[in-house]
Amino acid sequence: MTTVLTPPQPPLQPLSPPPPPPESAAEPRPGSGGDRPPARPGLALAGAALCVLAAVLLGFTANLTVVGHLQHARDQQTGYDELRKQLALGTAPVGQRTFDDKPLAMGAPVALLRIPSLGLREVVAEGTTSSVLMSGPGHRRDTALPGQEGASVIMGRQWGYGSPFNALDKLTAGTSIEVTTGQGKAVYEVLGVRRPGDKLLAPLADGRGRLTLMTASGGPYTPAGVLRVDAALTTPVQPSPPRPLRSGWIGPAEEALGGESGAWLAVFLWSQALLIAALLTVWLHRVWGTWQTWIAAGPVLVALGVAVSGAATRLLPNLL
Fold first, then answer.
1. Are strands 138-139 and 120-126 parallel, antiparallel or unpaired?
2. Highest-confidence range of 44-58, 170-184, 270-284, 294-308, by mean pLDDT?
3. Which of 72, 147, 244, 267 is the most exposed place for a label (fewest CB within 10 A)?
4. Strands (DSSP E) along 104-248, which ranges?
5. For range 198-218, the mean pLDDT
6. pTM for this one?
7. Where do the domains of the chain lie, and which CATH numbers do they carry?
């Protein structure tokens, strides 16, 4: 039998694993940010600026519409409860000082104004700055309280923050206006509506009272002047306590269409907070992704935008 010799075979080599894919081709992990290009400072600042602009514009819209009306309604209910309590206790203010001889605080409720023909019922606060008129009508502090001898002035907004005096131009001569203070209810009869350029009224005679309601004239949120409604007191004149601060002592912020220059500090501080939040939002967008970032940061940006615009609104005309 013939034997066939075969040449020896080399030993089998183990199969080497395939080379790893290039790092640039690796699949990014979800949320890791590996699918995004490197951050650029210019783009980050642009994104933050857009966040700030959007938040401020949204805040202005909210403050002058929904949020402002809700704030007005809340402050009116609070003021009504406080005034009703003071009327019941006999401690409602009747002059420039409280019942315990302290200066009457800015924003304190002093009267309840009713115009039945317009369906209007508003608590009147002391002072006419822009921030006071966010809560409702305000009594000009250098004039007599309604029901007393002399001229009384009450200012209110035309469109923003509840728009309490939006329909003043619809009042006609003979319409009744009621104002309740710590001295009881005073009733006035409308004499007429005065617009910019109309003649001034004759000076009041001694022992007479007159009420002037003031708001802005012009289109929505674009005041062009001051609209006035004058009314004569028809009920007996109430006694007037001494008034150490005479007419004309108030500052420009309490004049018609005046703004509060002191609000700049609040605007600056809230703007800084909004800018920091916007920059943090841009950074979180790189780390978390779109939806996670806006769910977490969106409410914060909106709240800060409302705060910035609320402070800035104090700079605008108080009858807006």
1. parallel
2. 170-184
3. 244
4. 109-115, 120-126, 138-139, 150-155, 176-181, 184-194, 209-219, 222-233
5. 93
6. 0.82
7. 83-239 (2.40.260.10)
